[in-house]
């Protein structure tokens, strides 16, 4: 039975009074890897922000990981974020502490108390992204690709039902982008559902998958053939 992790119907996305996207009708099923593409300024980040509760859904229906977006209350946002893993272009690691401490910070903030369980979880997520041996490094001692791997590990800490990655390779060179993408592919192969906003058409061609496109205030699915024709 497919499980719908994300569903929007007749939804509109606004930045204050400005309409960014309208008549959004999409679904993402458990286990899918979905790209979100579109020219700069077409609304990818606004869409992502709506999904993690940073922008209110002002009109239409939306549910994400079982939580309705249109009536989302301020106090439900931490609960929503705990069910999501969010990865940003600029990593957003805390520079004043090492990798392990960055992960402990998130675990504590999300209610974990048992030290041995925390250590076990940290080992597990760092292992998944190939960073187990670097847990004592500070972010500034790591390459961009390594920092993004740690950010992906951090997103995995609470076994998220959906990972939202907003331009995760945007600050990385092409080779490192492929390496980070391979980590995301491996995580997806292990059952994680991923929505990734990207500008990187080389990745789309190398790792074809379901693709949503923002264009002309609309968000719609495109097929790979069309993407290639437009390159
Ligand atoms: N805080 C804000 N207040 C008002 N308008 C905003 C705000 N943030 C973004 N916008 C506008 O919303 C539109 C969509 O921006 P958004 O950042 O969602 O696009 P994007 O597709 O993610 O672009 P990029 O690829 O450059 O990140 C743009 O016209 C932008 O100017």
From TrEMBL:
It comes from the Bacteria. Keywords: ATP-binding, Cell cycle, Cell division, Nucleotide-binding. It holds the Pfam family ABC_tran. InterPro entries: AAA+_ATPase, ABC_transporter-like_ATP-bd, ABC_transporter-like_CS, ABC_transpr_LolD-like, P-loop_NTPase. The keyword Metal-binding does not apply. GO terms for cellular component: plasma membrane. Residues 6-231 form the ABC transporter domain. Gene3D superfamilies: P-loop containing nucleotide triphosphate hydrolases. GO terms for biological process: cell division. One of its GO terms (molecular function) is transmembrane transporter activity. Part of the ABC transporter FtsEX involved in cellular division. Important for assembly or stability of the septal ring. Belongs to the ABC transporter superfamily. This is Cell division ATP-binding protein FtsE. The lineage of its organism: Bacteria, Pseudomonadati, Bacteroidota, Flavobacteriia, Flavobacteriales.
């Amino acid at each position: 039975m497919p499980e719908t992790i994300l569903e929007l119907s007749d939804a509109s996305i606004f930045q204050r009074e400005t309409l960014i996207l309208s008549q959004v009708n999409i679904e993402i099923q458990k286990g899918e890897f979905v790209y979100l593409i579109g020219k700069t300024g077409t609304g990818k980040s606004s869409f992502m922000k709506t999904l993690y509760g940073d922008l209110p859904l002002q009109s239409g229906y939306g549910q994400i990981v079982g939580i309705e977006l249109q009536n989302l209350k301020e106090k439900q946002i931490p609960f929503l974020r705990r069910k999501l893993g969010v990865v940003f272009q600029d990593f957003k690691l805390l520079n004043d502490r090492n990798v392990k401490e960055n992960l402990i910070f998130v675990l504590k903030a999300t209610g974990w108390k048992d030290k041995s369980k925390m250590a076990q979880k940290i080992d597990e997520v760092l292992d998944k992204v190939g960073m187990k041996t670097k847990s004592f490094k500070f972010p500034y001692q790591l390459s961009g690709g390594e920092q993004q791997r740690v950010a992906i590990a951090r997103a995995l800490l609470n076994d998220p039902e959906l990972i939202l990655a907003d331009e995760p390779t945007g600050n990385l060179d092409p080779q490192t982008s492929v390496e980070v993408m391979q980590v995301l592919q491996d995580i997806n192969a292990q059952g994680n559902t991923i929505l990734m906003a990207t500008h990187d058409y080389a990745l789309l061609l190398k790792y074809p998958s379901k693709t949503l496109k923002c264009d002309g205030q609309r968000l719609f699915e495109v097929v790979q053939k069309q993407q290639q024709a437009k390159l």
